[in-house]
Amino acid sequence: MKVKKITLHLIEQKLLSPFITSSGRVDTRESILVELEDVDGIVGWGEVVAFSSPWYTEETIKTCWHMIVDFLAKIVLTETFEHPNELRDYFQHIRRNHMAKAGVETALWDLYAKKKGVPLATAIGGTRSYIETGVVVSIDSVEDVLKKINGHIKEGYKRIKIKIKPGQDYELLRRIRNEFPTVPLMADANSAYTLHDIDNLKALDKFNLMMIEQPLAADDIFDHAKLQRELHTPICLDESITSIEDVRKAIEMESCRVINVKVGRVGGLSEAIRIHNLCKQHNIPVWCGGMLEAGISRAHNIALASLPNFTIPGDISASSRYWEQDIIEPEVIVKNGTISVPSDVGIGFGVNREFIKTITKDFTILK
Ligand SMILES: O=C(O)CCC(=O)c1ccccc1C(=O)O
Ligand SMILES: [Mg+2]
Predict the structure, then answer these.
(1) Mutation probe of ligand 1 site: the residue of 26, 55, 56, 148 with most atoms within 8 A of C-beta
(2) Which of 125, 183, 229, 236 sits in a 20 to 30 Å window from 198, CA-based?
(3) Is residue 345 part of a domain?
(4) Active-site residue, 163 included
(5) Is 130 buried (19+), middle (13-18) or exposed (0-12) by CB count in 10 A?
(6) Is 319 in the pocket of ligand 1 (CB under 6 A)?
(7) Do both 34 and 162 map to the same domain?
(8) pLDDT for position 173
């Protein structure tokens, strides 16, 4: 593959409803769409999933724009690639900046699959034609959380994830379990607790949660190992896992029993696949996390979740969960809690350029 042109599209869309976690709130969502065009005129699409402010990781839309324009683009435009895995080595001397790298790398994967004439899911070794999926309810009043859960169960989602924080945990979960005693349920704390809260966290064991996601600090695997020894509920790591090396250490230390894989957080699909493979060897189930994304990242997630060790429904909801209109065609629909893995080449969805134009705030062309 020889890329001759990179177009970055900075888009902004309003979420249908604000998304609130213990560490941040999102009302409008900026994203960078990465369009790679090769010498034969074939186009691959990626999406940078960083937020406008650094509440979830240290990256922002602006740092990603800077990284791609000033460092990553040059590598992609200079080198010739046989396979997208090679990009990982070229990017190695640039530290971190995983979401910027992933935006470019996933576009190269789409291009690669299109040139091979196969769906992206096939190109990465996916084995499922349908994926099971869950949905996330953000922090809200107990009454509204119960109402939303009820709606999502009716929509068919296979698993409900709620956001918790100190003071909005025990009572909320008690009320949820009262009304929905058997629904597959998990809680995501986005690092809102410390080991001082250990008794409060142990008290949540009785709600039969599938897992508790990232209770402790975003860069920690040491305290999580201590906590996991005290909890019956499996811990799932999200923020703490930024690479396969983090996974190796977390498994060895027994810091968690489940891992949330996000392509952007770990720097691309190649790293996500390696993480999937390592977890499979160690019988650690994985699931695909979400980033309130637009359709291109959603399509990459669907392909990723078709790998065999993605055995737990992920945060890959329907386009209509967050958007009035998605940037891809057709939009992603959830039927009986499942999404079908597309059989068209590459990401398997069309990209709606006309709609993208109407939500574009800035763009740049790099050659
Ligand atoms: O539905 C989604 O896209 C995922 C929602 C979600 O939980 C989330 C959204 C943005 C940033 C971090 C997280 C998280 O998994 O912690
Ligand atoms: Mg999380």
Answers:
(1) 56
(2) 183
(3) no
(4) yes
(5) middle
(6) no
(7) no
(8) 98
